[in-house]
Amino acid sequence: MKFSFKNDYSEGCHPNILQALLQNNTDQQAGYGEDEYSLKAKEQIKTKMNKADSDIYFVSGGTQANLIVISSVLKPYQCAVSAASGHILNNETGAIEATGHKVLSIETGDGKLRPSDIIPVLENHKNVPHQVMPKLVYISNSTELGTIYQAKELEELSDFCKQNNLYLFMDGARLGHGLTAEISDLTLERVAELTDILYLGGTKNGALIGEAIVINHPALQEDFAFNIKQKGALLAKGRLLGIQFSELMKDDLYFDLAKHANQQAMKIKHALQKKGVQFLSDTHTNQIFPILSNKVIEILSENFEFYVWKKIDDQSSAIRLITSWNTGDDPVNRFIEIIEKEL
Amino acid sequence: MKFSFKNDYSEGCHPNILQALLQNNTDQQAGYGEDEYSLKAKEQIKTKMNKADSDIYFVSGGTQANLIVISSVLKPYQCAVSAASGHILNNETGAIEATGHKVLSIETGDGKLRPSDIIPVLENHKNVPHQVMPKLVYISNSTELGTIYQAKELEELSDFCKQNNLYLFMDGARLGHGLTAEISDLTLERVAELTDILYLGGTKNGALIGEAIVINHPALQEDFAFNIKQKGALLAKGRLLGIQFSELMKDDLYFDLAKHANQQAMKIKHALQKKGVQFLSDTHTNQIFPILSNKVIEILSENFEFYVWKKIDDQSSAIRLITSWNTGDDPVNRFIEIIEKEL
Amino acid sequence: MKFSFKNDYSEGCHPNILQALLQNNTDQQAGYGEDEYSLKAKEQIKTKMNKADSDIYFVSGGTQANLIVISSVLKPYQCAVSAASGHILNNETGAIEATGHKVLSIETGDGKLRPSDIIPVLENHKNVPHQVMPKLVYISNSTELGTIYQAKELEELSDFCKQNNLYLFMDGARLGHGLTAEISDLTLERVAELTDILYLGGTKNGALIGEAIVINHPALQEDFAFNIKQKGALLAKGRLLGIQFSELMKDDLYFDLAKHANQQAMKIKHALQKKGVQFLSDTHTNQIFPILSNKVIEILSENFEFYVWKKIDDQSSAIRLITSWNTGDDPVNRFIEIIEKEL
Amino acid sequence: MKFSFKNDYSEGCHPNILQALLQNNTDQQAGYGEDEYSLKAKEQIKTKMNKADSDIYFVSGGTQANLIVISSVLKPYQCAVSAASGHILNNETGAIEATGHKVLSIETGDGKLRPSDIIPVLENHKNVPHQVMPKLVYISNSTELGTIYQAKELEELSDFCKQNNLYLFMDGARLGHGLTAEISDLTLERVAELTDILYLGGTKNGALIGEAIVINHPALQEDFAFNIKQKGALLAKGRLLGIQFSELMKDDLYFDLAKHANQQAMKIKHALQKKGVQFLSDTHTNQIFPILSNKVIEILSENFEFYVWKKIDDQSSAIRLITSWNTGDDPVNRFIEIIEKEL
Predict the structure, then answer these.
(1) Most CB atoms closer than 10 Å: which of B35, B296, C271, D123?
(2) Beta pairing partners, B310
(3) Which ranges constitute the DSSP H helices of chain B?
(4) What would the CATH number be for the domain defined by B15-253?
(5) CA C264, CA A254: separation in Å to the nearest integer?
(6) Do the Cβ atoms of B75 and D223 come within 8 Å?
(7) What is the nearest CA distance from D175 to chain A, expressed in angstroms?
(8) What's the fold here for domain B3-9+255-342?
């Protein structure tokens, strides 16, 4: 069986999580997120964020988190704005629109949004009441293209949103990877200060399932639990989510796992760079998009699974490689060996 | 800590499931339900149902299953009908209405629907196009009141639905309990023949999470996966659902667990009956609703957790006791002892 | 052709309206409700209501007004409550649910809601977050059964709503008829003081189309125009609505028309009462529901159109008769003649 | 008061319509579109279209028609595609998304869609079930940029849609103008043959309100009336719509009015062309977009109202001029005089 670099959710979960599930399996707990594990995990996250007043809810996956957050924040005539590469625009089967809200798409080369990207959208939506009202800025960190926000970028965006009465929502499906990128100068605390609402991804960082929605803006906290339940996201056995996040938050497991994934990707990246390979985007996280000749891609395909991401010309394409918390040295080394041999 | 008879999702999951999660934790699998475990589990269910042509999808919980099924089956102007005690009417925060569909409520004493209950609703919805069009009959088995459908009842209802061009949808959150009730003459195969769409509940019968939606009617199968994804219910690590259902379907674990839960409830029921206690409804599953004096309820409350379900008069109320796959003999015996002493 | 007592929208509109449409046909006006006629009509209504700070919007019909108001007021998990006879529950094809909101139905004999009707609903919806949150009380005046609210009743309901943090919304499709009923002690000013939002019906009181939504509660006024547009209710030629309401508000035309309709119904009512006929409800507006023998109903049917409303027993049924702003003396007298002859 | 070239709905309606409303004002008619006038108008349209089997419904306005059609045609996970200039994308406050459906935007210079525009969208939406499924192609004729479809273009698009299992929906808010453009080789009959569903606009072509939805594809006809009612679009006094369309369809009034509007615009266009003025798009209908210097625009603004549509550079902008069924020779001549003097 070929090793897969297709995504970061191919394996199960970190062993600590399974261990904790085993140890706590038979005690009786309150349902629907009122169990001790969930309560503890929420405290752990708040402590790490230095945000005692934030509200936290656990849900199963990213699309679910996105649709619940956006539909609960917006009034019927309000919309979200997103980079064109945003997950909500491309990979969620219209989940946001299904809740009644438009998502305005903004073309940006690197998957990030800057105030200068958003200003024209605001300018073009002033024909009241004939157009939707932009009200929420959706960003992901790391982005769908593997890029990250630096502190200054997020500060500028946050300021801009406040000045323009926009909510800032960060999709953190890969927040661990974004914050532990070697070049990142952003911290979880700072992210919590600069966003109105966000989620920390578990699914792509060592959990079986689970994303932790963190609501920082007080106005968005009111009655939020109703939205979770109404969208079918309130697990009867909330302990499953609580136990996982409690384990991930112990010491720095969450960040250690992400850092490991990043490092494995960077090893491949550096090996490719030495050979003069170009990349679709300049990434420092667990996703890389090298541009390779079709011949090399074919050889790699015989040994590994990955997505051919984008055709560049008749001779070459960009591929996407993703590493995970569980990607060992062996497949990475084998990949590098082939690269060094074939390039 | 008091033992809780509040519900059947207070504990974790059956040990076999945890064992399987451990054993299969690190192999790489395709995401989004295309993993081997999910594919195998689907085959196991089809075999048990003798329904090779049915389509099966796993989702996390009951509200999610209900809202996905109903919103995918109905056109915008069509509605569901449900017994007034139906879960979709009372305990899902308007999840069905949030997808745009009305649920018509029918008062019935025992939580079950018969053709004679539905006929007047059809009669009263003929003012085209000024009224919603009833199109789907929602039933649960066992019901929210612990009662069950017998084969003849389900056959009559199924015939009626076919004659009236209605889809029959069974919420099987507690289907195991319904089918293993000592008086039940219904089988899983027969249920599959008689319904258009249904789900088998895992959450309330020994899984951590998970319900298996089974689509029997060919017209309802088309493109169903889109609905799962759009509602945020498609888990990236579908293996979590596949592994669980594969374990539950091995031998007859699913039914053994339900039968056990039923038996524990029946022990208490019989002890209460011996003392002449009356019940709110005549149940043979893992839910019982004995009517007790306030004084006895108070004494029981000192030792156990349970819901006081309905005030009967100033002196007495009905309580709800639920047993689970994991309810041992000890709490049952202790409960019976108190009953025998106090009554 | 038989004269029809089926409803109050069988004829066109009051001649003054057509005259105004003719006179103002060719002047150029701003679109989308910014025309002079609409602006003037809004001022006329505010003056009559003594509500300078209310916001007013004109839309085409009642279902449209109801769905726009309710969907704009409620958050996704909130619901409306209505008497079981409410138009939104029975005659709008699930229009409210289609916007995502449940409507809780309350059985009341006379189509009216009192605090005592609503209290149990609030009591039964405290299982947070598993149930919808009641947030808006929908009433109609006159009701779908022809009954009306008196000042004291509306005051008590308004107080109750304020105390319980509920919005009070009055469907005034037949508000003119309600306020001009001979026994009514309620005024338009008082209605405006006691409700958060309401609409004055034009369609059933002499206009071609048109309902005037009046928003009294400041929190509900924000950005309301977006909702009108998004639901497809913002007419390009808003002048059509403005001209009509401006004419209806001149002098007391709106109330004169409603009073006339009421009086014609009352003539028939009194003639029936003299003969000892019973009624389904005690009405003083333009709807009456006499209970007659099948034989008399058959004779009347040969001469008039009307709805047989409800079967009482094998020998008799209640019929519904509705008079309009344009119902002349001739059909009323002919109806009374038959009654006097046959009873 | 300055004459306005801002739009084609500034005036009231054609005098024949008012005359008909006057003549038929007091006869009693069935409600909700079952009146004689509506029935007759539907037959007139079918005859003109040579489409005896089409179903026709009248609604008040364009946004309403668009949202009803699209939400009734699509399943929850399906989406519409539209040229980026499409009315549903820019001027309807997210009305389509509010019904749960995404609209994919395609950049095209002239507001028209060709198969070559749509193919890449289909190619990019094959990641089942993670993306919405394109299912309906939305076009307008004449377009929002004043351009039109020729027979060959519509035939190619229609063939393409059939081959790709897509529904073709034409927004005909200005269909009269599109078909009577002097260069048009398309007829109403041919449009009916080539589209699955469309609407003929009344509001922008001499009616007070009203669009006629024509459903050609049999599968889309089933139960359509429910959708009209549910969205609040079913007028109690349907006669208002029926009378208007019946008048517009008499002889060729509908086309005569559109042709007149086109001709008035073309007079201005030709005068501008003589002076060497460039246009944003090459139009032959009642919308023209000349590019003028800011100085000339200022002078024109002192005499006329119109929209400055798009800044071209610091010295010049494109303006939008729209003529209507009621635009007389006088304002057109005055406009031309200024042009001839100032250019």
Answers:
(1) B35
(2) B318
(3) 15-23, 36-49, 62-73, 87-90, 95-98, 115-123, 151-163, 175-180, 188-194, 224-230, 239-249, 253-274, 294-303, 329-342
(4) 3.40.640.10
(5) 77
(6) yes
(7) 22
(8) Aspartate Aminotransferase, domain 1 (3.90.1150)
Asked whether the domain spanning B15-253 has the same topology as the one spanning B3-9+255-342, the reply is no
Report how far Cα A195 is from the mean position of its chain's Cα atoms.
Answer: 14
Q: Answer whether A28 touches B (CB < 8 Å).
A: yes
The verdict on C61 touching B (C-beta cutoff 8 Å) is no
Closest residue by Cα to residue B11 from B257, B301, B230: B257
Say whether domain C15-252 belongs to CATH 3.40.640.10.
yes
pLDDT for residue D24 is more than 90: yes
The reply to whether C19 touches chain B by the CB within 8 Å rule is no
What gap in Å lies between CA A317 and CA B157, rounded to an integer?
A: 58
Domain boundaries, chain D: 3-9+254-342, 15-252
Task: Give chain A's largest Cα–Cα span.
Answer: 62
CA distance A343 to A276: 9
- Return the pLDDT at D149: 98
- Residues of chain A in contact with residue C225, where contact means CB-CB under 8 angstroms, are 128-129
Asked whether residue B1 carries a pLDDT value surpassing 90, the answer given is: no
Q: How far apart are CA D240 and CA C235, in angstroms?
A: 14
- Chain D residues whose CB is inside 8 A of the C233 CB are 60, 64, 232
Residues of D in contact with B226 (CB under 8 A): 76-77, 128-129, 133
Chain C nearest-CA residue for A230: C77
The share of chain D scoring above pLDDT 70, in percent, equals 100
Indicate the DSSP class of residue C279. Answer: B
Q: What is the pLDDT of residues B180-190, one digit of tens each?
A: 999 999 999 99
- CA separation for the pair B340, D269 (Å, rounded): 99
Gap between the terminal Cα atoms of chain A: 24
| Residue whose tokens read 């007013």 | C56
d(Cα B158, Cα D123) in Å, to the nearest integer? 42
Best mutation target among D97, D102, D130, D135 (most B Cβ atoms within 10 Å) is D130
- Identify the CATH number of the domain defined by range A3-9+254-342: 3.90.1150.10
Centroid of chain to Cα A306: 19
Read off the pTM: 0.97
The one-letter amino acid code at A192 reads A
Model confidence over C94-142: pLDDT tens digits? 999 999 999 999 999 999 999 999 999 999 999 999 999 999 999 999 9
Mapped to the 3 state alphabet, what secondary structure does chain D carry? Answer: CCEECCCCCCCCCCHHHHHHHHHCCCCCCCCCCCCHHHHHHHHHHHHHHCCCCCEEEEECCHHHHHHHHHHHHCCCCEEEEEECCCHHHHCCCCHHHHCCCCEEEECCCCCCCCHHHHHHHHHCCCCCCCCCEEEEEEEECCCCCCCCCCHHHHHHHHHHHHHCCCEEEEEECCHHHHHHCCCCCCCHHHHHHHCCEEEEECHHHCCCCCEEEEECCHHHCCCHHHHHHHCCCCCCCCHHHHHHHHHHHCCCHHHHHHHHHHHHHHHHHHHHHHCCCCECCCCCCCEECEEEEHHHHHHHHHHEECEEEEECCCCEEEEEEECCCCCCHHHHHHHHHHHHHHC
Q: How far apart are CA C312 and CA C30, in angstroms?
A: 54
Contact A289, A111 (CB under 8 A): no
- Look at C97 and B102 and tell me if their CB atoms are within 8 Å: yes
Report the C-alpha gap between A111 and A108 in whole angstroms.
6
Q: For residue A220, what are its two tokens?
A: 């968005």
- For residues D237 and C209, give the distance between their C-alpha atoms in angstroms, rounded to a whole number: 7
pLDDT reported for residue C1: 82
Q: Could you tell me if A130 lies within 8 Å of chain D, comparing CB atoms?
A: yes
A129: left (phi over 0), alpha (psi -120 to 50) or beta: alpha
Interchain contact, C105 vs B102, CB within 8 Å: no
